[in-house]
Amino acid sequence: MSVAKHHVMIKGVKDGLVFLLNDGCDWEELLQELQHKLEKTHQQILTGPIIHVNVKLGSREATEEQKEEIRSVIKQKGNLLIQSIESEPPKILTPEEPKSAITTLRGMIRSGQTLHHEGDLLYLGDVNPGGIISSTGNIYIMGSLRGMAHAGSEGEEKSIIAASHMRPTQLRIAGVISRSPDEWGIEEAFMEFAYVKDGKMEIDKLHQLHRIWPEAPIK
After folding, report:
1. Average pLDDT over residues 156-183
2. Domain Septum site-determining protein MinC N-terminal, which positions (predicted)?
3. 117 with 203, same domain?
4. What is the DSSP secondary-structure string of 96-117?
5. Within this chain, do residues 82 and 113 fall inside the same structural domain, yes or no?
6. 147 within domain boundaries
């Protein structure tokens, strides 16, 4: 019966040899190939002076009996001195970091007050003239925005600013600053959002948001 030639890898390192043993194959096949390589294919490089050997089992949890089987096979070559037979520590599966959720805050930002938030922000309340609201993500205001708003404050130009009533003194998205609200060309100021397009601030009705953000599939 032919012996597979891919379950055992022997690598030379500074201090000797490392035997890398496949952790997904049958144990008997592994031992058979280990024996074959020591006796046949690698016989020439495994002779001579004492060589230190470290055996790596991958993620396989070998019993003491199985480790002894490995020792018995390798010890047949008198010049091989086993230093260690080790398995990798089990991998601890950690849940993925949740995508940043929207934080909801409520209140009123008065003149001279500043509210800064990390991530997306849903603000239930008004931002009065002289008040500032800023966020590293998107800003959604369920109320009147009559002060200053700065979304994507750390440079994210894909952020948006949306408000139930949009009459700010100034809008900023990343490093882009809005024109004067009088130049927007929109008579009404209800349910709008600001976004950056080609490096310029644009204003549109909130129901047009799907034009820049693809719709999520309904499950």
Report:
1. 87
2. 8-85
3. yes
4. PPPPPPPEEEEEEE-TT-EEEE
5. no
6. yes
